[in-house]
Amino acid sequence: QGHLVESGGGLVQPGGSLTLSCVAAGFTFSGAAFQWFRQAPGKEREHVATIYSTHTLTDYSDSAKGRFTISRDNRKETVYLQMTNLKPEDPAVYYCHRMNYETWGQGTQVTVAS
């Protein structure tokens, strides 16, 4: 099923921006759909964004719409999540997921604090 490795998390001030990356390996990247999820302490893992194999087809949670952008680079076999205007409710571990497979990355921590 391959594997996924996230990076790019860190500490950012409210209103700031971060871009997460998810590098894939071990399967045909171009035909796969990918998702970003996040999980905050004490909360269930929640969907953030989806990108399908056609680059233009994407889907976002209500909390992500207008602030986050999911994209992919098939040559680099990488999925991105650009996050802007980060809010106090956004801190979590962010996970990359290969849609329809039990393939998850290890997660990357995003912290929003002054």
What does this structure look like?
With 114 residues, this protein is mainly beta. The protein contains no helices and 11 strands. The protein is 0% helix and 50% strand. The chain is globular.
* CA-atom Rg in angstroms: 13 Å
Find the structural class using helix and strand composition: mainly beta
SSE order: EEEEEEEEEEE
Mean pLDDT: 95
Uncertain segments are none
- Please tally the helical runs, counting DSSP H or I stretches of 4 or more residues: 0
The biggest beta sheet is recorded as:
7 strands, mixed
How many angstroms separate the termini?
Answer: 40 Å
The 3D shape can be described as: globular
Described by its quaternary structure, the protein is single chain
The proportion of residues forming helix, as a percent range, comes to: under 10%
| Number of β-strand runs | 11
Bin the strand percentage.
over 45%
How is the topology of this model organized?
Elements (H helix, E strand, L loop, with lengths): L2 E5 L2 E3 L5 E8 L8 E6 L6 E6 L6 E3 L7 E6 L4 E6 L8 E7 L4 E2 L3 E5 L2
Task: Looking at this protein, list some descriptive labels.
114 residues; 4-stranded antiparallel β-sheet; single chain; 50% strand; globular; mainly beta
